[in-house]
Structure formats: C-alpha cells, structure tokens
Automatic annotation (TrEMBL):
Positions of transmembrane segments: none
Organism from which the protein derives: Streptomyces rubradiris
Gene3D superfamilies from the UniProt entry: NAD(P)-binding Rossmann-like Domain, UDP-galactose 4-epimerase, domain 1
Classification via SUPFAM superfamilies: NAD(P)-binding Rossmann-fold domains
Pfam families membership: NmrA
Keywords in alphabetical order: NADP, Oxidoreductase
Xref: InterPro entries: NAD(P)-bd_dom_sf, NmrA-like, NmrA/Isoflavone_reductase-like
Keyword Calcium part of the UniProt annotation: no
UniProt-recorded name of the protein: NmrA-like domain-containing protein
Highest taxon in the source lineage: Bacteria
Location of the NmrA-like domain: 24-256
Amino acid sequence: MRSFVRAGRGPGLTEENYNTMTTASKIFVAGATGLLGGQIVSNLLDRGASVRALVRPGTDGDKKAALTALQARGLELVEGDITDPVEKLAAAIGDATTVVSAIQGGPDLIIDGQVNLVRAAEQAGARRFIPSDFAIDITKLDDEDNVMIGWRRKAAAAYGDTSLDVISVLNGAFYEVMIGFMGLVDWEAGTVSHWGDPDQPLDMTSVPDTAAFTAAVALDPEAKGTQRFAGEVLSMRQFHQTLERATGRGLTLKNLGTADELRAEITRKAAATQNPFEYVGLQYQWCMVTGKAKFDNVDNAKYPQVKPGSLEDFVRQAAPKA
Ligand SMILES: NC(=O)c1ccc[n+]([C@@H]2O[C@H](COP(=O)([O-])OP(=O)(O)OC[C@H]3O[C@@H](n4cnc5c(N)ncnc54)[C@H](OP(=O)(O)O)[C@@H]3O)[C@@H](O)[C@H]2O)c1
C-alpha cells in the first residue's frame, strides 16, 4: 500500500500539515467540468495540490476549455467515464490517493457509476473516496423522503464494504439553489415563498464555499466520516429579511401551506409524473422545513482557512437590484 503522510495534530488543519499533505498526495476529481467539480479543482490547485481530472470524451467544448486552461497550473486531464470498465477507470485514477466525485445524474450514475468508481479506486490503490453527496443531512433522512438523496444513500450502502475511507461532505442547500432552482424567490413578483414554519433554521452554503471546504477535507489527512458545513443557518423569515437588505427591495413573504400540505403536494405530483426532477425541489424543501435534515453540528471550525461568505453579500452580487 502506498504511504500516506499523517501529520500529528489536534482538531483543525494547520497550514504546515496542510502543505505537507498537498505535496504528498494526488487528488482525482470526477465531475470536474461541472459547477461544483470545477471549483473543487481550482481550490485544490490554489492550495498547491496535484490534481488529475476525469473528462468525458464527448464533453462540451467550452467546459473542457475551462479545464484545459488549468493545465498551465499543473492540472492533469485524463479522458474517461465513471461507467468505464473498472480496469480502465483504475488506470485513469493512477497514483491518486483520494478520489473526489462531483458528478450529477440519475441512479445509473449516482448508484452504479459511483460504485464502479469506488471499485476502480480500490484497484488503483487509492485510500479515500469523497462521494457526490453535497447536500442536507442525508444521514438523518429515509430513502423515500427525497429521490436524489435516496440514490446517494443507496450508493453508500452498495459500496459500504469498501476498504477506502469514505468522507461525505454535506453543505445544506447552495445559496445559488435557495435563490434559484428551489423556485422560492420570484424577483418579478417581489415574493419569497415558503412552506411550513418560517422560523425553522435551515443550513445553506454557496457553491464556492462548498468547493473550498471540500478541497480542505480532501487535503486533510485526518478527515473521516461525515463532514458538515454551513455558510449560514437561517430561517425562511431571516432569509426573506436578508434578501430585502441585500437588494434594498421590499419583498412579500408568502406562506404556501403547512409541511403536511407540502407532503401531500409532493405525493400528488409524484403520482402524476415519471420524472422525479419535477418534484424533487419540493422534496428538498420538505426535508429542510420539517427540520428532519437539519445539521446537529457543523465542522466549519476544523478548517479556519475557509471563511464562508454571507448570504447577504452573495445576493448583493447575484440578485436584481431595486
Ligand atoms: N446542496 C445543493 O443545494 C446542491 C445543488 C446542486 C447540486 N448539488 C450537488 O453537487 C454535486 C455536483 O452537482 P453539479 O450541479 O456541480 O453538477 P453538474 O454541473 O451537472 O456537473 C455534473 C458533472 O458530472 C459529470 N458527469 C456526468 N456523467 C458522467 C459520467 N458518466 N462520467 C464522468 N463524469 C460524468 C459531468 O460531465 P460532463 O460535463 O461531461 O457532462 C459534469 O462534470 C452533486 O452531488 C449535486 O447533487 C447540491
């Protein structure tokens, strides 16, 4: 087995052993052409890490060009797909010690593809795997609460026998998703909608900060198990007030119903479609507003070098102004 530098320390990663780790290990990133994966790669390079990124042969030219530009900073690119035969994927992983997955897709990728990636990582002699979890607290949910989280839980069970150390990074909801994909904010109508208790605390983190925490975890020789991070913990009432402060606009906070009514709405939508992406946004909201997927604690303090930005600053940059 390849040697792996272990720096003795208490909780938290000092700059000294962080740097020791960066020179001693190579990180393999699958999903590097994606929104989160690309930023994980940049963060790792910023820290002086050796990084190899998997790029699919048919990937979009612009997305590939963004990675090609990073080759000047030492990034290695290797062509492949996480569904490739294990031997081929293991050769792509090569001498990497840590495999990070930031892929996105359906169960064929999140379950079967990631299991394949784990088997390839084992064969290559890697030591650690960071799966494409990056969510609310998936350890507290049941498989049927959220279809996308269910796939991640099933994947974890399927590679549960692995010899690799599996480190799951959880970040709550992306700020980008809270003001976008979730469909909560209607800038034109000037409304912020929510279900359930407006005072339930919710975990959220921006994409860049999630990438920075993931890079810190990937380079931390002592990281183990589930690592939880939150840029902000805000209720929907505080979220609404933050958006008003950041934009200088009056926005109406609109209650759409109770958490039980949200559950009924999800059941109705699920019965009417074969496409889970039509209701998964509501499932994320249910998991959050009920408090079921709330972090009990966060691990931000282990990585003081990552200083997550506030939602207010993020919205000031991203949202339409008054
Ligand atoms: N907490 C939240 O609010 C939140 C929100 C959004 C996403 N996420 C999570 O963040 C993670 C990354 O999501 P994202 O939005 O960054 O995804 P994304 O932008 O859609 O990128 C997906 C990546 O996966 C790659 N990929 C897909 N199929 C592949 C295959 N067969 N082999 C190798 N690579 C493959 C894609 O490559 P190509 O470029 O070749 O297609 C791309 O690089 C996921 O776990 C997602 O659930 C969390």
